[in-house]
Amino acid sequence: MNDPSSTFHELLTEQIRHEFTASQQYTAVAVYCDDEDLPQLAAHFYAQALEERNHAMGMVQYLLDNDVQVRIPGLDEVRNDFKSVEDVVELVLDQEKRVTDQITLLARAARDQGDYLGEQFMQWYLKEQVEEVASMTTLLRIVRRAGDNLFHVEDFVAREMPGGAGTDPTAPPSAGGVATLAGA
């Protein structure tokens, strides 16, 4: 149905790898926070890991729906060693900024190829990235203000970044359904 040599489809397959890698990176970050006895941050980052996985599976579903052969790629290496919570949040903010650049490139590729369905599909991801970068930017500011008193960070996350808010009804469908945190 669709051109298998499409630059947009190639970039989307590459983005699936980036999204799965981001999911694993968020898992590594969550485990670090869990080990540091920071349950609010850990829960937030575990939820982010699932969200990134769902983003990848949404892209898989898009390719399936458009009769494009899907190959699930391997993952990039993730970082597991951190010096501090600030180090963690700086990493995830940088990751979200990179993903924003990648999503923007995808939207541009779809537009340049005249792939209006692909361009429309990417609009939700563009909106999502604005939210993700803003959220992590705010969290980094809070971490820096809190200094060594991470109870302030935990309180902020519990109060302002509640997990389990549900699934965005405008999100693209995920292949295999949306994964959620048990009990969330």
TrEMBL record:
Residues 162-184 are annotated as: Disordered. Keywords: Iron, Iron storage, Metal-binding, Oxidoreductase. InterPro entries: Ferritin, Ferritin-like, Ferritin-like_diiron, Ferritin-like_SF, Ferritin_DPS_dom, Ferritin_prok. The keyword Metal-binding applies. It comes from the Bacteria. CDD domains: Nonheme_Ferritin. The keyword Nucleus does not apply. The lineage of its organism: Bacteria, Bacillati, Actinomycetota, Actinomycetes, Pseudonocardiales. Residues 167-177 have a biased composition (Low complexity). Residues 2-147 form the Ferritin-like diiron domain. PROSITE patterns: FERRITIN_LIKE. This is Ferritin. It comes from Actinomycetospora endophytica.
